[in-house]
């Protein structure tokens, strides 16, 4: 873990500036708004969360991980308890920005209640408001008076295979994991550990950093995927990626069973985002999907 504390940008920044005045200079009112309820009306998120009891927090970053969680836990719009609007740049270093949302769901299958945070439409671009978003999402949750040792945190994100650094890179999609407990042995983890010289940044590192600095038991799972050039094969490729993640069933009691067949998400925007991601976000390929 010392390696990741040094190598993950969010770790080093959080460790050095956690209580600094510099963070206070970020204009939260313009970049991160207030929580909204299902109808889009401002809601007291602290009060909403304090009325809930849950064992697990799952964070899905990106459309594929969000679609996976939605299918695995049967998450619907009826489970939505709040959403957080915020502004992020569309492209790294560009002035053009876009408004997007973090969605918070609560599902309670028997006694295994779970709080789910999804950021389905964010990009990997690094921006200082990401830390503000994560702090605003998790602060009320971890301080909401949960009983016992508190909930654990599972973060799921995606990266393209070419971003993986190793002497030999698999030709197929694969999964790597980072665990908050350095004493955790390889046999207890559902996937191989993410090793140096690989680093993570952006939202995945911000969520994991938050958990580490507050001694929250956490695991970060990275799905390295191979972009698909054949748009007609795109959703089948997404299904194959889902199957890559299903060993999570061995890790957490949240995942009792997975669908034998992954259907298209009901959310058409999410479905399009999954296909766009697996096609390498190439508009020309997306056009072929609908012609």
Explain this structure to me?
The longest helix has 14 residues, at 129-142. The chain has one domain (2-289): Rossmann fold (3-Layer(aba) Sandwich). Strands 2-3-4-1-5-7-6 form a seven-stranded mixed β-sheet, sandwiched between helices. The protein starts with a helix and ends with a helix. The protein has helices at 2-7, 9-17, 28-31, 45-50, 63-72, 129-142, 203-213, 234-245, 268-278, 283-289; strands at residues 56-61, 80-89, 97-107, 114-119, 152-160, 174-179, 218-225. The protein is of the alpha/beta class. Helix 2 packs across helix 7.
Q: Compute the gyration radius: what is it?
A: 18 Å
Q: Which segments are poorly predicted (pLDDT under 50) over 5 or more consecutive residues?
A: 12-30, 283-291
Helicity, in percent?
A: 25-40%
Order of helices and strands: HHHHEHEEEHEEHEHHH
The CATH superfamily appears as PAC-like subunit
Please tell me the total number of domains: 1
Could you tell me the CATH topology label.
Rossmann fold
Pairing-aware structural class of the strands and helices? Answer: alpha/beta
Number of strands: 7
> What is the level 1 CATH name?
Alpha Beta
Known CATH architecture: 3-Layer(aba) Sandwich
Q: How are the strands ordered across the major sheet?
A: 2-3-4-1-5-7-6
Averaged pLDDT: 78
- The tally of helices reads 10
Distance between the termini: 49 Å
